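ingest -> validate -> predict -> emit
validate: passed (alphabet ok, no gaps, 599 aa)
predict: started
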Amino acid sequence: MKWTGRFQGYNGGAFRKDIVSGVVVGIIAIPLGMAFAIASGVRPEYGLYTTIVAGILVSLFGGSRFQIAGPTGAFIPVLFVIVMQYGYADLLLAGFMAGVLLALMGLFRLGGLVRYIPRPVTIGFTAGIAVLIFSGQIAGFLGLEGLTKHEDFLSNMRELGTHIGGVNGYSLLTGAICLIILIVLPRYAPKLPASLVGIVVSTGIAALCYPGALPTIGSAFGAIPSALPSFEWPHITMERVLSLWQPALIIAGLGAIESLLSAVVADGMTGTRHDSNRELIGQGVANMVVPLFGGIPATGAIARTAANIKAGAVSPLSGVIHGATVLAVLLLLAPYATHIPLASMAPILMMVAWHMSERRAFLYVLKTRSGDAAVLLLTFLLTVGADLTVAVLVGLALAALLFVKRMSDLAHVTRVLPDPADARGKVRPGAIREDRDCPQISIYTIEGALFFGTTAPLDAAIQAVAERQPRILVLRMGRVPLLDTSGEARLATLAADVEAAGGIMLLTGVQQQPLDLIRQTGLDERIGAHRIFAHTGTAIDYALTRLDEERCRGCRHFAFRECAALSGLRSLPAQQVQGAKQAAAAASATGEPVRRVGL
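emit:
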């Protein structure tokens, strides 16, 4: 990997800025790391281990200059369910497997695929995760004890309702103090780390005024070690790998989405561009190493990355310093963390949930009352009521179906003829009338993408052509930007039907992608490569040479300028010309509906 671009022009002044930003973000990350770990169902120090190891490795090997990685709120519901179902040891292995998947995604250059996830889906599952995080902190905020943790939202809410009478007033007061600080401090002292100040102040008040009156980290989890755990390779067996492939896939998918979204936010704030594939490789390396030190899965943290940039970060070194800062605090101050009340941690995650809920975007999409609103609402409800995997898969499926429906609504096939009132002979639907319609040549304009979901208009055209049985069929494809094998199959069927009736099919204005597919499938040879034209006029000139002249004699439809000579007249009758002009003008003035096939 080349490092020059990330550190180009680096100097002492930049290093000083990185130190400041790294220390600031490190201080912000300490309470968040512990809170995310506790909410995920594991010991608080595991969150610190993750912050240290992942923060350093993603900064060194990732694709964003400003990315800060660590445990995040988006992972909380997923990791909690994995811990409940499989246990902490299997969570470590699932995280390691997810790291392998992330690295492979980067190596196979799949980083760009994340951008194809519809925004209603991302808003829906993000808002759903926010609800799960917020609801999961109510018990800690109120000081409720003896609750049985469940994997699903409704069961946890019933459990909460059963124990609501056991509210601890001291916990409620401590949580309220911390929450007030989290809300007020950013307004009046935005440079101070509100989460750290909230924990220190609320913990101090609890320790001085009512010691031992509410649950703390120490009473719930025991002492926090003042060191990193020893390196330990996970016990890997085929049976464990097969049982954990789905959790690993969920962690990898969510980690990829979250990290790349964070990198995009950093790009928008700094005017830089990240390398998405390299970022996935960096995330993969970090998630393979973090479990070896007892840490939980990590990804890019949007809020901490933004704070890193606002604090003046210049290079990835700020992320390394952020990890080193957390390590120093762990080594020096870990024993004091045991005195932190759980009620002081709950408001921090409640605020995280509030900020990640995307409530404005959620309401904005809902107000549209469109298919996107349905996708958003369904993804949200499934995230809360079922699980993230089902929510994302169903959301993506519904979004895809709605996209196909919209594209199908835009696609149509229209029968046209040259407009005699137009000096250049442009073809228009309004030029077709009962007394002006060529019985031998049918011209159709196809508009919109022709793929598996939008072939209905072409099917209707096939039926119409079968009924008319023209000698020559001209398809104008200049407005077809995309053709798949389903659309190509319909064209092949149409060509075969026309040929079976003794006619020929001509294509005009075919764009590059449809033309490439037509050549790849050999349809151009079946039609005849010489029957694919760049312009409609050239195709019509060719078609006029292939007419049955006997049928033209005595014909009074005069669909083309050449029809007068072909019918045995020297020129087009003046009455016919005047009638065509009047009809065209009337259609233009009254907005006569276009005659379309398969709308």
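Residues 238-270 form the longest helix (33 residues).
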